[in-house]
Amino acid sequence: MTEASTPLKTDAFKVACSSCNLRELCLPVGLDRPDLERLDALVSTRRSVARGDTLFRAGDAFESLYAVRTGFFKTCVSSEDGRDQVTGFQMAGELLGLDGISADRHSCDAVALEDSQVCVIQYNQLETLSREFTDLQHQFHKIMSREIVRDHGVMLLLGSMRAEERLAAFLLNLTQRLQARGFSSSSLILRMTREEIGSYLGLKLETVSRTFSKFQDEGLLEVKQRQIRILNQEGLQQLINGAGSTC
Amino acid sequence: MTEASTPLKTDAFKVACSSCNLRELCLPVGLDRPDLERLDALVSTRRSVARGDTLFRAGDAFESLYAVRTGFFKTCVSSEDGRDQVTGFQMAGELLGLDGISADRHSCDAVALEDSQVCVIQYNQLETLSREFTDLQHQFHKIMSREIVRDHGVMLLLGSMRAEERLAAFLLNLTQRLQARGFSSSSLILRMTREEIGSYLGLKLETVSRTFSKFQDEGLLEVKQRQIRILNQEGLQQLINGAGSTC
DNA sequence: CGTGCCGTTGATTAGCCTCAAGGAGGGTGG
DNA sequence: CCACCCTCCTTGAGGCTAATCAACGGCACG
């Protein structure tokens, strides 16, 4: 079980943060030119992960963080009794593996939902480098903190929202992140199954499916399997903010 | 609303991490003697927070982290429409304020549930100092990562557990943390209301109350208002791990 | 000795889950 | 190229869990 964690397919060629088109979204945010070039030394290799394969598993030794370069991931935790929970979906520019720092061992699985590439960031090198320059240190802390804030948002969602609100919030969050990456804000293709969405949102897949259908009936969405077109963004937003606040 | 965040009651006297009895639980974990003494310079002041007062509020400018010295806190986030979610309960040795790093502004409220004292850790000084010595840097990262892992655990709870399982998990987590601080593992006094427990667990206060009563009927607990005695710890544990796994 | 907050308990309801059946799409092998 | 299979998705019927609404008891505090 805890043995060889998927064959490492480490591509030999280098990738430079300084010339990466994700540098405004990823770890290098806010770094100036000279710092950026020093970061290139840190992010030395790329790794490809085929759809369905795991980047790391709970229990694996922690050595590196991973920045998604292309593709799409989910992370999930599971309890001893086999309960499973998707804790997040990660797209280009987002960091994977922060959970591993706490115990030098990953505490969740990271699975590619489509063929993907990640930049491998040796964690001990990151610590070393961030001792040398402030901006990188600060940026890294911000990223960890942002993950905490995001998690709190998910708790709010799971703890106090109803099914429709959860799905609406989920879709709006997805489109917002896609928009920041230059994609359409009204049309998207889901990379995950209904069951994975349900796990993330604390719902069963049937409920997710029904809620999609309901949104479609109400003219909020057009749903064709995994192709989603948002017809009424404000309508979705209103679902979240005070369902019936006409006062 | 966003004006003066509760009158600062900064006690003038210093407190030394190097002589603090929480140093095995708090930020200084794993630091050796010389490092510890340098940390004393960082943690310069203590602040008292009366029961019911806020340590910081969402929207407040972020400047410091806080280590709970004595007392008990809750943190909660709220959405625009007034929905409210308790995201955690913090006791002695635990850090508050990590959410603020991401946007230089706190994103949740921290409220004292009993008269409390915190150590004030100037964040920019912490960054400076952790650039100078590795162990502090590493320890700080571990603490942030641990918070992320904890949050994932809460997501699992909120996303996939039933009321009884949630409350059982909550009680076991509390007693475990109390035990690590030298308190009894079988007897505790809740610092929070049923409503706050409910908010944290994604349940209504009536459900929390009913579940307490049920546990009492089943002989798992003795419940007298906020005084809880655990009569059958294994029974609670079994509730979480595979409710009915006799196979 | 009131007053207000907190907790308990009951009756009813709503929302989501469970179980079940069937359809659509994509990939594979004949 | 088609038949087949498998996975994923949709939809319906019925049941269960937890929410809601409501009333009351107890404790702390002024």
TrEMBL record, chains A, B:
* InterPro entries according to UniProt: cNMP-bd_dom, cNMP-bd_dom_sf, Env_Response_Regulators, HTH_CRP, RmlC-like_jellyroll, WH-like_DNA-bd_sf, WH_DNA-bd_sf
The question of whether DNA-binding is a record keyword is answered with yes
* Gene3D superfamilies the UniProt entry points to: Jelly Rolls, Winged helix-like DNA-binding domain superfamily/Winged helix DNA-binding domain
Q: At the top level of its lineage, which domain of life is listed?
A: Bacteria
Q: Does the keyword Cell division apply?
A: no
Q: One Pfam family, short name please?
A: HTH_Crp_2
Keyword annotations of the record: DNA-binding, Transcription, Transcription regulation
Q: What SUPFAM superfamilies does this protein map onto?
A: cAMP-binding domain-like, Winged helix' DNA-binding domain
Residue ranges annotated for the HTH crp-type domain, each copy included: 161-234
Locate the Cyclic nucleotide-binding domain: which residues? 27-97
Q: Cross-referenced PANTHER family, in alphabetical order?
A: CRP FAMILY TRANSCRIPTIONAL REGULATORY PROTEIN, FUMARATE AND NITRATE REDUCTION REGULATORY PROTEIN
Official protein name in the record? Fumarate/nitrate reduction transcriptional regulator Fnr
Q: Which organism is it from?
A: Ideonella paludis
Q: What gene is it encoded by?
A: fnr
